[in-house]
Amino acid sequence: MRAQVKPLTSESLVQAADLVAEGQIVVIPTHSNYNLVGDATNTLAVETMYRVKKRGPYKRLPIYIPSAESLEQYAKIPTWVDPCLFRAVWPGDVAFVLEVSYPFPNALTCNAPTVVVGCTDHEAVVALTARLKRPIAATSANRSGEGQGYVGLQTAIEQLGDSVPLIIDGGVTRGARQHGCPTVNTIVDLTTRPAQVLRPGLVPAHTLARWLPDLKVPSEM
After folding, report:
1. How many domains does the chain contain in total?
2. 95: nearest Cα among 182, 201, 20, 183
3. 21 Cβ neighbours under 8 A, 6+ residues apart
4. Quick one: which of 76, 104, 126, 192 could link to 99 by a disulfide (CB 3.0–4.6 Å)?
């Protein structure tokens, strides 16, 4: 199998969503970089993502949900966290570790009681989650251990082009244009109190301080 590489259009996004709905995996652009994605509720799709990416079995996959309003279908909001946080920062370039409330495949969560949840307004992700009406699992479109940070279209084609049926060409992503700046989503752990930044990224910690005043950042940990 060799991937079709198609420009980002409404038609190609429908094709991508239909493939994902069938349990297949595809590559799409996001604001940060190119991602390998699949149906987060489909065990076979999730296992295929691990196999294709050669990802270790104990590195869970993040998910994108359709909207901030849908969060509590999939994860629990801690009682000490203001729910306005999610409506304020989503869609955006930050993901949160939360206690899971949906029966996702064990492979997705690595049998942990938590899940990494994001919500973005990138048109490719929005198109897929809207058509599926459920979350997608997402990870950078490269083989594990081969490259750090930004993953572009060419890397996705070279490393995963023989393993997926479709790659959507959305051009150069914002992550590639931000030279010297983070190119990945910020990840914040809300299963501990105070909350902790696990991975600095596109959303700086100070922008979250209104809702998480005691947020711990790596330099303080």
Report:
1. 1
2. 201
3. 39, 131, 132
4. 76
% pLDDT > 70, the chain: 93
**Residue 198 to residue 188: CA distance in whole angstroms:** 6
Alpha-carbon span 55 to 47, nearest angstrom: 10
Global pTM value: 0.92
Give the tens place of pLDDT for each residue, 20-66: 999 999 999 998 889 999 999 999 999 999 999 998 877 899 999 99
Q: Spell out the alpha helix ranges (H) of the chain.
A: 10-21, 43-53, 84-89, 106-109, 123-132, 153-160, 174-177
Whether the CB-CB separation of 157 and 151 falls below 8 Å is answered with no
Structural domain harbouring 121:
4-220
pLDDT at residue 149 in the model: 66
Query: Could you give the angle at the alpha carbon of 170 between the alpha carbons of 165 and 174, nearest 5°?
Result: 130
Token pair belonging to 137: 């699992």
Please determine, for residue 4, whether its predicted confidence score (pLDDT) is greater than 60: yes
Q: Quick one: which H or E segment has residue 100?
A: strand 94-100
Between CA 123 and CA 171, with CA 16 as vertex, the angle to 5 degrees is 50
* CATH number of 135's domain: 3.90.870.10
pLDDT digits 0-9 by tens, 96-127 = 999 999 999 999 999 999 999 999 999 999 99
User: Which tokens is 202 given?
Assistant: 């596109």
Q: How confident is the model at residue 176 (pLDDT cuts 50, 70, 90)?
A: low
* Listed residue (147, 157, 129, 158) closest to 63, CA to CA: 129
Place of tokens 């009406």: 133
